[in-house]
TrEMBL record:
Belongs to the UbiH/COQ6 family. Keywords: FAD, Flavoprotein, Monooxygenase, Oxidoreductase. InterPro entries: FAD-bd (IPR002938), FAD/NAD-bd_sf (IPR036188), UbiH/COQ6 (IPR010971), UbiH/COQ6_monooxygenase (IPR051205). Its EC number is 1.14.13.-. This is 2-octaprenyl-6-methoxyphenol hydroxylase. GO terms for molecular function: FAD binding; monooxygenase activity; oxidoreductase activity, acting on paired donors, with incorporation or reduction of molecular oxygen. GO terms for biological process: ubiquinone biosynthetic process. SUPFAM superfamilies: FAD/NAD(P)-binding domain. It comes from Chelatococcus caeni. It is an enzyme of class 1 (oxidoreductase).
Length: 411
């Protein structure tokens, strides 16, 4: 009796989840000649959310050909100002970071999330070797030669490697048996886009309050995006106000820094929480983006960390193929596992520590945070080191994020 022939793979890589990280990864892999399938329906709801893309993320988008079409719809963040508004006994002066101090025109750019996704989706549609499947993935199974992804339309797709970029509630990650740790904070983040009467001068301002950071980030024109972290009770009260009342509350909280304000577009409300994974890979699968880590919206780390996932995983897959390895094997994925573990752990710890010190109402914590801000204001080398580390880890950046042929100011 003839031996039954195994079914062929449908792609080299299946990426599940068409958010910014999933889209960018699928495009990057297809551009390297890997047959790539992106699974999921693109959603571009305008809900007042923006993303602050730091310099290394901009380089990645530029390298895959996405940034040229997005730049005019984004605003540069040339300056970042930290203001202690905790009303503690030891209040340091505001600290301003200038991108020019580390050789950059801007720390990054702020753009509406829906605009970013739409731009990446349009590029994906025109990328050779990249297939789009609008169905939802319902199950993941790892096999000896390839993994299978079941779809809600009854189809089954096969590839040597699957990437779970399907968000914090990732079905692919759960089916792969990757354990997670989740936590929450007694806070809610309110998001909105506001027009204002004064120029933001390409400056992002973050007020540290007792309930969490209150941040205004520049958008093109006389507009800024808001992330206001506060108690659930305060968030409930603020969310119940009409647009005029909400804008007035924002104006007062911002000390009228940007003049009169007006809500422009949708408003959002997000409970503050976090998530981390026990490992970034399993049999024939890697996790990336919010399937791998979830951050509260503090310090612009969430999507930027996801973009580093993209760049690191792209390097690991390309290098494995060059060496003739099975790209879904533990040996091939080992570089990605090792490369992401320390970076994500350090960022998670840093953001969590900052947020908890604001909530502590503990004098030694206030003194330590205040002394740190004063040191950043007065000590130039320390300030520049913190700026570089805030943009990227103190390590060699993956290739799509590096400045080819020049000394990298981030290193």
């Amino acid at each position: 009796m003839a031996k039954r022939k195994a079914p062929a793979a449908d792609a080299d890589v299946i990426v599940v989840g068409p958010g910014p990280a999933g889209l960018a990864l699928a495009i990057a892999l297809a551009q390297e000649g890997l047959r790539t399938t992106l699974v999921g329906e693109v959603r571009t709801a305008r809900d007042g959310r923006t993303v602050a893309l730091l310099d290394a993320s901009i380089r990645l988008l530029d390298a895959i050909g996405a940034w040229h079409g997005l730049q005019m719809q984004a605003a540069p963040m040339a300056h970042m100002r930290l203001v202690d508004a905790t009303d503690n006994l030891f209040r340091p002066p505001p600290v301003t970071f200038n991108a020019g101090e580390i050789g950059l025109d801007a720390f990054g750019y702020n753009i509406e999330n829906a605009t970013l996704v739409a731009g990446l989706a349009a590029l994906a549609d025109n990328t050779r070797g990249l297939a789009r499947v609008a169905a939802s993935a319902t199950a993941f199974t790892a096999g000896a030669d390839f993994a299978e992804v079941s779809l809600d339309d009854g189809r089954i797709l096969r590839a040597p490697l699957v990437v779970a970029a399907d968000g914090r509630n990732s079905r692919m990650r759960a089916d792969a048996g990757i354990d997670i740790r989740e936590w929450s904070y007694p806070q809610t983040a309110l998001t909105a886009i506001l027009a204002h009467s004064r120029d933001h001068r390409d400056t992002s301002t973050e007020f540290h309050t007792r309930s969490g950071p209150f941040t205004l980030v520049p958008l093109p024109g006389l507009r800024s995006s808001l992330v206001w972290v506060c108690s659930p009770e305060q968030a409930e009260t603020l969310a119940a106000r009409d647009d005029e009342g909400f804008a007035l509350a924002v104006e007062r909280q911002a000390r009228s820094m940007l003049g009169r304000m007006r809500v422009e577009g949708g408003r959002g409300r997000v409970p503050m929480s976090g998530l981390s994974v026990a490992r970034f890979t399993a049999d024939r699968i890697a996790v990336a983006g919010e399937a791998a880590h979830v951050f509260p919206p503090i310090g612009a780390q969430g999507l930027n960390l996801g973009m580093r996932d993209v760049a690191n995983l792209r390097d690991a897959v390309v290098d494995a193929r060059t060496r003739g390895l099975d790209i879904g094997s533990p040996e091939a994925l080992g570089a990605y596992e090792r490369g992401r573990r320390l970076d994500v752990r350090l960022r998670t710890t840093g953001v969590d520590a900052l947020n908890r010190t604001l909530l502590a109402h503990f004098l030694p914590a206030d003194l330590l945070r205040g002394a740190g801000l004063i040191a950043l204001d007065l000590i130039g080398p320390l300030r520049r080191f913190v700026m570089r580390e805030g943009l990227a880890p103190h390590a060699r950046l993956p290739r799509l994020m590096s400045r080819a042929g020049a000394a990298d100011p981030l290193l």
